[in-house]
Design goal:
Helices cover 44% and strands 14% of the residues. With 258 residues, the protein is α/β, with parallel strands linked by helices. It has a seven-stranded parallel β-sheet. Strand 1, helix 2 and strand 2 form a beta-alpha-beta unit. The structure holds zinc ion. The site of zinc ion has 4 residues, from loops.
Length: 258
């Protein structure tokens, strides 16, 4: 939401959205210092919730240095050291979106540092998986890191950006699966509906890609419309796009809908 306008808040509230959960992400450019992330974390935990509140929308966030900026391990170390003092803030749900972008050795190191931080502070985890040809390998590498740490409970982790070839393994290993909706590329509303029809709706939910590039904040309501068109019941749609996220997020203890 830090890259969106107030029109988007107004549209989401009009469409029936009940809350916004914003991951720390790549802002469209690489930040040059830990101080840049400090300001960003202040924005996510202080300014943005106030902006959302003006539209009656509860705002929550996840904190981390995202995989796309994780190649510089020294910078990542400094940024991760900043996070603990923000974890007590009222709208922080956990650590995310962490994971891999190019599946590099340095990204793996930074992922392990984040998982350790989440484990020793009891935080939930939101995972970004790589796109396109790196996705399957990256998703497996990430799940192996999470499974190798006995302090991490899979039911408190969501593996995001799943697609047809990764969703089953994610669910089989006990994690939640997030389908991130994009207007054209990657997972569209039609593909998300296909996935639900094949794999069911237990521990799955949908979220909208919503950032500095071409993306649609109303992607989830649009996908609900696609499911209605295909004959899914109102109850089934509500379970997928509302009850499931509430069930997962409520594990944080901070997630409330006012
Ligand atoms: Zn992501």
């Amino acid at each position: 939401m830090v890259s969106r306008t107030t029109d988007d808040y107004r549209d989401m509230v009009t469409a029936g959205c009940q809350a916004v959960c914003e991951p720390a992400f790549w802002a469209g450019f690489d930040r040059s210092s830990a101080a840049g992330f400090h300001d960003y974390f202040c924005q996510l935990t202080d300014y943005e919730p106030k902006r959302a509140a003006k539209f009656g929308l509860p705002h929550f966030c996840w904190l981390c240095i995202n995989p796309k900026e994780s190649e510089d391990v020294a910078l990542a170390t400094d940024v991760i050291a900043l996070i603990p003092k923000f974890l007590d803030r009222a709208n922080v749900l956990g650590i995310g979106e962490i994971g891999l972008n190019k599946n590099s050795r340095n990204e793996m190191k930074v992922l392990e540092m984040h998982v350790d931080l989440a484990a020793r502070t009891g935080q939930m985890i939101l995972v970004h998986t790589p796109h396109l040809e790196d996705k399957l390998k990256g998703t497996r590498l990430i799940m192996d890191v999470l499974k190798a740490d006995s302090r991490v409970r899979p039911e408190r982790c969501i593996i995001d950006h799943v697609e047809e070839h990764t969703v089953k393994e994610v669910l089989d290993r006990g994690f939640w699966a997030g389908m991130t909706l994009y207007p054209e590329s990657k997972c569209t509303a039609a593909r998300a509906a296909d996935i639900v029809e094949i794999y069911g709706a237990e521990r799955i939910w949908m979220n909208s890609a919503c950032d500095w590039g071409v993306s649609v904040p109303l992607a989830v309501p649009y996908a609900a419309l696609e499911m209605r068109r295909r004959g899914h019941s109102a109850e089934a749609i509500d379970r997928l796009i509302y009850q499931n996220p509430v069930r997962f997020l409520s594990q944080s203890g901070k997630f409330t809908l006012g």
